[in-house]
Design a protein that fits this description.
It is built from twelve helices and nine strands. It is mainly α and 345 residues long. Strands 6-5-9 form a three-stranded antiparallel sheet. The protein has a two-stranded antiparallel ribbon with strand order 1-2. Strands 3-4 form a two-stranded antiparallel sheet. A hairpin with a 5-residue loop joins strand 1 and strand 2. It is elongated.
C-alpha cells in the first residue's frame, strides 16, 4: 500500500469518526435543560448541559491509532531487503508495542481530543453570550447554538456544536449582520467560501434595498453555513491528524530499526519534498530537496525546525493544510558491510 493509499483510507475514517462523535453529542441534548439554565443566566451550566465530553471521541482515537499502526507496518514493508555480503538477510519489523511508538500515538490522540473539547466549550460560551447580548430570548439563543431538529431525519442541524471558537465567532457575526442589515457584514458573508450560494440572490437583494434579511431565512442561511463549516472542520482534523500520525510513525519505524542495530543513524538521510497544493507555502517550496541526517531537523527560511512535515512541535503556520512529504534514504551498502564486518569480527 502506498502513502497516498494510506491517506485515502484513513482520512475519511477520521473525518467520519469526528462527525459521529459530534452527532452523538447533539442527539443527547435536552433543549429544555439548556434553556432553563440560560433563563437563570447560568451560561456555564448551559455549557455543561450539552455534555461535550472527551469520551464522545473514542472512535476518533481508535481510528487515529489504526492509521498510526498501519503507517508503521507500511513503512518497514516498503524498505528494500538488506542483504550482507555473506548472504545474511535482515528482517525489518515495526513494533506496535514499542514504548516510544505508544507514547507518540497516546500523546497525539490525547492532545487532539483535549483541544477539541476545550475549544468547543469556548465556542459555546461565545455563542451563548452573543445571543443573549443581542437581546434574543433563551430559547432562540439555545436553538442557534445547539441547532434545530430536522423533522425528516430527526437530527439537529445548524448550531455551533463541533465548530471551533473562531468558526463560532464569524458565524455569529454573519448572523448579526444579516439580521441587522449591516451592509459591510452582509458583503463579508458573501465572501465566505463555506456559504450556501443558493441564498446569494436573497442577500444581494437585501443589500440593494439596504435592509436586513428575513429572520426565518437567516435561520436557514446560518444553518447551512454551520453545517458546511462542520464538514470543513472534520476534513481539516482528518488531514492534519492522519498526516501527523503517518509522518511520526514513519520516523519512529526507522528509529526502531536503528535501535535494533539493523541500520545505523549515520546510514540514514531524509529529504523534504514539496507537494503541489492550491495555496502552497513559499517556505516549504524553498525547503524542497533539503536533505539532512535522521537526527537533524529540516530548517525553514524563517528558522523553524521541523523533524518532518506535520511535526507536532512545529508552529501551526507550518502544519495546517501542509501536503509536503519526506523521503528516507538508507545507505544499504554501508549497512550491509557494517553488519558483515561485525559478524566477521
Amino acid at each position: 500500500m502506498t502513502f497516498d493509499e494510506l491517506l485515502d483510507r484513513y482520512e475519511p475514517r477520521l473525518a467520519a469518526a469526528f462527525r459521529e462523535g459530534v452527532e452523538a453529542i447533539k442527539s443527547t441534548i435536552v433543549l429544555k435543560t439548556v434553556v432553563e439554565r440560560l433563563e437563570r443566566g447560568d451560561i456555564a451550566g448551559a455549557i455543561r448541559a450539552i455534555q461535550f465530553e472527551p469520551e464522545a471521541f473514542s472512535a476518533l482515537e481508535i481510528a487515529l491509532q489504526e492509521a498510526f499502526n498501519a503507517g508503521g507496518v507500511n513503512m518497514v514493508q516498503s524498505l528494500p531487503q538488506l542483504v550482507a555480503p555473506d548472504g545474511t538477510r535482515v528482517l525489518f519489523q515495526f513494533g506496535v508495542r514499542n514504548l516510544e511508538a505508544e507514547r507518540l500515538i497516546r500523546e497525539q490522540s490525547s492532545t487532539l481530543v483535549t483541544n477539541i473539547v476545550e475549544d468547543q466549550r469556548e465556542a459555546l460560551r461565545i455563542a451563548f453570550e452573543a445571543g443573549l447580548a443581542q437581546g434574543r430570548n433563551p430559547t432562540a439563543t439555545a436553538l442557534e447554538v445547539v441547532g434545530r431538529v430536522n423533522r425528516v431525519t430527526g437530527r439537529r442541524e445548524g448550531g455551533v456544536i463541533g465548530l471551533t471558537s473562531r468558526q463560532a465567532e464569524f458565524i455569529t457575526r454573519a448572523r448579526e449582520s444579516l439580521l441587522s442589515g449591516n451592509l459591510d457584514g452582509m458583503r463579508s458573508y458573501l465572501a465566505l467560501k463555506t456559504r450556501d450560494r443558493r441564498f446569494d440572490r436573497t442577500v444581494l437583494k437585501a443589500i440593494r434595498e439596504d435592509r436586513p434579511v428575513d429572520r426565518e431565512l437567516v435561520a436557514k442561511i446560518i444553518g447551512r453555513l454551520s453545517d458546511r463549516n462542520l464538514l470543513l472542520r472534520a476534513e481539516t482534523i482528518a488531514l492534519e491528524e492522519t498526516r501527523t500520525a503517518l509522518f511520526s510513525v514513519r520516523d519512529n519505524a526507522i528509529r526502531q530499526q536503528i535501535e535494533g542495530g539493523k541500520i545505523a543513524a549515520q546510514e540514514v538521510t531524509k529529504k523534504w519534498r514539496h507537494s503541489g497544493s492550491e495555496h502552497p507555502r513559499l517556505q516549504h517550496i524553498a525547503m524542497s530537496g533539503q536533505s539532512v541526517g535522521i537526527d537533524q531537523p529540516f530548517v525553514a527560511p524563517d528558522g523553524t525546525h521541523l523533524m518532518y512535515p506535520h511535526d507536532p512541535k512545529a508552529p501551526v503556520r507550518h502544519r495546517i493544510g501542509c501536503k509536503c512529504r519526506v523521503e528516507y534514504d538508507i545507505d544499504y551498502i554501508a549497512a550491509g558491510l557494517r553488519r558483515y564486518r561485525a559478524r566477521a569480527a
